[in-house]
Amino acid sequence: MGLIDDARRAAREFEYSADDVNKGVKEFIRQMDEGLQETGMSMSQIPTYVTAVPNGTEKGVYLAVDLGGTNFRVCSIKLNGDTTFSLTQSKVAIPRELMVAKTSKELFSFLAKQIESFLKTHHNDHFEEYHQRRHAGETLTDEHFFQLGFTFSFPVHQIGINRGHLIRWTKGFDIADAIGKDVCALLQSEIDALHLPVKVAALVNDTVGTLMARSYTSPGKTGTLLGAIFGTGTNGAYVERLDKVTKLKKMEDSGDYDTSTGNMIVNTEWGSFDNQMSVLPNTPYDAALDKESNNPGIQMFEKRVSGMFLGEILRRTILAMLKDGKTELFKDESSGTNDVHSTCTIADDSPLYRQWGIDTSFLSIAHEDQSAGYRIMRQALNRDLGVDAASSEDAEAIKILVEAIGKRSARLSAVAIGAVIISTGNLTLTAGDAIDDKDQQVLEEEVVDIGVDGSLVEYYPGFENYIREALREIEGIGEKGEKRVRIGIAKDGSGVGAALIALVAGGKG
Q1: Which of 4, 145, 264, 450 holds its CA 20 to 30 A away from the CA of 402?
Q2: Catalytic residue list contains 192
Q3: Cα distance between residue 204 and residue 494, in whole Å
C-alpha cells in the first residue's frame, strides 16, 4: 500500500457521516433542553438576562469596556440608527502587579481611571457639562450618564443584567478578595469615587455580544437567532423563549428581568457538549489529546472543533503514521528520488515532537495550497515543522489529513447550528412558503440569520461550505431549509456588542 493510500486510511478515521450528524443534532437538542431545566448539566445554558436583540434602528452613544486578559480596552460606540456605527477606542496593558494585587480595589480603581482618561480625551464636553450640573446641585437623570457594557472574560455567576459574582480568576490574575464579589459593583464603586457620568448597565459575555453585534449590522428584517464563535475556542448564544428557561424560577438568587419580549438570550457554553461522549467521535488521537490536556474529560466538543486543538490532532495523527514502520511518510522511498534527489529529514527539535507544536494556521496553508508540487506547503513543512526536503507526495498525504480534520470540525459545528435552528422552531414555516419559486430567492422575512466570529470560520478555507453541506443533511432542515440560513461575520462582540447590551439593558434606543 502506498503513502497516499495510508493517508486516506488515516483520514477515514475522521469521517463524520450524515447519520452521525443527525444523531449529534438529536443529542445536542436533548442536552440543550436539559440545561434549560436544571443547573450543573453538561451544557450550562446560562441565562444572560438580556431579553431583546437590536434591529439596526437604534441610536445613541454607549460605552464598552473589555477586561479579557492582560489588556483593558475602553470604547465608545456611536450607533447611527441605520445598521452602521462608529467606534473610538483606547487600550492599555494591565500592570503585572495589579493582576496579583492584595485587594480588588487596586485593580478596579486603575480600570476606572482609564475610563476617566478616555472620557476626558474623547467626550470632554459631556464630561465637563456633567460636572457643572453636579456642582450646581442639579438633579441628574439617566440621560446625563453614559450606559456602559462590561465584558468580563472570567468565570462569573451571573444573577442579573448587571450583576455577577466572580467564581475564580484565570489568565494570570489572582486577587483573592474579589472571589465571590459582584464585579459590576466593584467597578461602579470606583467609577462613583471619581464622580464619572457612567453607569455599569450590563455584564457581557463576548459570545452574546457577537449575537448583538450581528443583529444590529445584519441586512435583514429579522433579528439574529444565534451568535457563534469558531476560533481558538467555540461557543454559542441564541434567542430562546423565556417559558423554556424553566430553571430561572428555581434559582433562588435570580435577578429581575424584563418579561415583555417573551425571550431571553441564553449562553450555551456548548464547548462542553457531550462531555460524557455519548455521540461525539473519538479517534485515538482525540483520546490522547484529551488525556494529556490540562482539563481531561472537559470541553470535549471544543476539543474536536476549535482552532486551538486542530493542530494538535494533526500532529498526533502524523506521529502515529511515522511510528508505523510500514508507512512511507517523510521517507525517500515515498516518491522515488524524492523529487529533487535530496534526503528528507526531520529536525530533532521539530515541533512535531512537542505538544501543541502545530499551529492551526499551518492547516489553513495546507488546505488552501494548489501550487505545483505543493511547493507552498513543502516550504511551510520546512519553516514551521522542521521537515526538510519533503516530497510532493509527503505534502499531498498531509493535505489529505488536514482536509479530513478540518471537515470534521465544520460538520460538528453544523450540529450545534442545526440543533439551535431546529429546537427554536425557526424553520416551522414550510420551506416552500419561504422561497419565491420564480427565482428561488429566499424571502427576506424568512431568513434565519446567524452571526459568526473567529479565525476558523473567517479564514479556514471552505469551512462555511462544509457547514452548509452538513446542514443540508440534517432532518428538519434539508436543502430548502439550508437556503434560508444566512451566515454572516459579526465583529467585535466585546465592543459594539457590549454597547448594544448596555442599550437593551437601559431600555433605550
Answers
A1: 450
A2: no
A3: 8
Q: Which listed residue (9, 134, 168, 354) is catalytic? A: 168
Tell me the C-alpha distance between 70 and 280, whole Å: 34
Angle value at C-alpha 67, between 93 and 48, nearest 5 degrees? 175
Directed axis angle between helix 3-12 and helix 392-423, to 10°? Answer: 20
**CA atoms within a 13 Å half-sphere pointing along the CA-CB vector of 411:** 24
pLDDT 10s digits, 395-452? 999 999 999 999 999 999 999 999 999 999 988 744 444 445 445 667 777 899 999 9
In angstroms, rounded to a whole number, what is the distance separating the alpha carbons of residues 443 and 460? 29
Of 44, 153, 293, 455, catalytic: 153
Residue 348 appears among annotated catalytic residues: no
Task: Write out the DSSP string of 425-488.
Answer: TTT-S-HHHHEETTTTEEPGGG-EEEEEESHHHHHSTTHHHHHHHHHHTSTTTHHHHHHTEEEE
Give me the catalytic one of 206, 274, 369, 492: 206
- Give, as one character, the DSSP assignment of residue 182: B
Q: What is the pLDDT of residue 78?
A: 94
What is the C-alpha separation between 509 and 502, in angstroms, rounded? 10
CA distances from 57 to 219, 220, 251, 259, 501 (A): 11, 12, 34, 22, 14
Specify whether the CB–CB gap between 273 and 416 falls below 8 A.
yes
CB 485 within 8 A of CB 452: no
Burial of 30 (0-12, 13-18, 19+ CB in 10 A): middle
- Residues of the chain under the 70 pLDDT cut: 1, 332-342, 429-441, 507-509
Is 206 catalytic? The answer is: yes
Number of neighbouring beta carbons within 10 Å of residue 160: 18
**Cβ atoms 374, 395 nearer than 8 A:** yes
